[in-house]
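Recall that a protein's primary structure is simply its ordered list of amino acids. Everything else, from secondary elements to tertiary packing, is in principle encoded there. The following example makes that idea concrete.
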Amino acid sequence: MQQILFPSPSTKTVATCFVYTPPDYNKDQNKRFRAVPAARPGARMKRPGALRATPSDMDNLIAEGKIKPFMIVMTYGNDQ
């Protein structure tokens, strides 16, 4: 899981997002992965689609062949 800071013109602040990458992400620089935006539970986020899985949960599901490797991009949990 990586934390990334980026400028947010709408809030005129530096916003934060987190990016989950699958275990083999850095092994093959030519491989492409789907990126899925997700809501991360936070102070004001009580949405049904909020991500509740941990990075190790995702790693295990990929290793077991239950899901294909993909990336998840999450905002910090306060509607930035």
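DSSP finds one helix and four strands in the chain. The beta strands are 2-8, 13-20, 34-38, 70-75.
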